[in-house]
Specification:
Layout: H1 2-19, H2 26-53, H3 55-101, H4 119-135, H5 139-147, H6 156-164, H7 171-186, H8 190-198, H9 207-215
Helix pairs in contact: 1-2, 3-4, 4-5, 4-6, 5-6, 7-8, 7-9, 8-9
């Protein structure tokens, strides 16, 4: 482009110097103006051709294509994440409704007998067990679902009682199952899976549980 500009500039200067004293001759002036215009167009065409054929222009085109493909890939990934989040909400709602229909008489805990619990504590444990068994949620996520004003609406104390008294729950295994879901449905990298597992808008697992999960992915 620099060469084209210099070429164009030299032509303009040449014609201006040559005919600066002949502007009174209208025909000559118009002819010179046409020549300058032709020279201008030719310069830009040559400059464009030079740029298109240059290695830098090819590299720029490759880089643009890569960036466009990456943006398209990121866009699809975000759409899949939104779908997965929606599916999770739908599953949570279903489990919450099913749990409310169950009787609390079958609940057992580590530290308390069933007779020592209130009905809300018993129901909170049933719901928490379903969240863990069916959706492999983290302890923090289960607590949030139990206390959500859009979900189960248990009191914070009953929700804490439930998550603290769940029997046989392996939180590392829950993290691993969630990580497999991210891998199979979103095709995320291990680093991205770790971020999703520990995110307050994602799995809400602890860093230790997330590390266990990504280290045991196959």
């Amino acid at each position: 482009m620099v060469f084209a500009f210099l070429f164009y500039a030299s032509i303009v200067i040449f014609f201006v110097n040559r005919h600066k004293n002949k502007k009174r001759d209208l025909v000559t002036y118009k002819n010179n103006r046409k020549k300058i215009l032709i020279a201008m167009v030719s310069s830009f065409l040559l400059g464009g051709l030079f740029y298109m054929e240059s290695p830098q222009s090819k590299q720029d085109a490759i880089q643009d294509a890569r960036e466009e493909k990456q943006q398209e890939k990121e866009g699809k990934k975000e759409v899949e994440k939104e779908k997965l989040q929606k599916q999770k909400k739908d599953d949570i709602k279903k489990i919450s409704n099913d749990s409310k229909k169950k009787k609390a008489s079958s609940v057992s805990t580590n530290n308390s007998s069933s007779s020592d619990m209130t009905s809300d504590q018993q129901n909170a444990i049933i719901t928490a067990e379903n969240y863990s068994d069916s959706l492999h949620l983290s302890k923090a996520d289960i607590y949030d679902q139990l206390t959500s004003s859009y979900g189960d609406k248990f009191s914070p104390s009953d929700a804490k009682f439930a998550v603290d008294n769940l029997e046989g729950v392996n939180w590392n295994q829950n993290a691993l199952e969630t990580a497999k879901n991210y891998l199979n449905k979103l095709h995320l990298s291990k680093n991205d899976i770790y971020d999703q597992l520990t995110s307050q808008y994602g799995g809400k697992f602890t860093p230790e549980q997330a590390t266990y999960a990504v280290n045991h992915l196959k």
